[in-house]
Amino acid sequence: MRVSARALAGLRITKLERDPSGGYWTARATLGGETVRVDRRYGSWRVVEFVRGREVARRDAAPALAAALQNKVTPLERKERTAREHG
User: Fold this and answer.
1) Alpha helices, DSSP H only, in 1-87?
2) Residue 24 and which of 18, 66, 67, 86 are 20 to 30 A apart at CA?
3) pLDDT tens across 43-70, in order?
4) DSSP secondary structure letter of residue 1
5) Contact of 1 with 29, CB cutoff 8 Å
């Protein structure tokens, strides 16, 4: 999914959550009818490609998509950190 900053107006980020087994962030992103799975399993946001239910490839997410995801995740991480510190 190639995403320009201008095209982000139609971007929908859904199912943004932590993976229960690995603790990394994962989401689905939809733009123009195309939905992809993205995650931050290895540090940076990557698009995960599947064939017949098996992961076959990973590629870096477009910078605009990665920035949009990070803007959603940062407040959630801050909230988690505060809860741990005061919990």
Assistant:
1) 63-86
2) 86
3) 999 999 988 888 889 999 988 889 999 9
4) -
5) yes
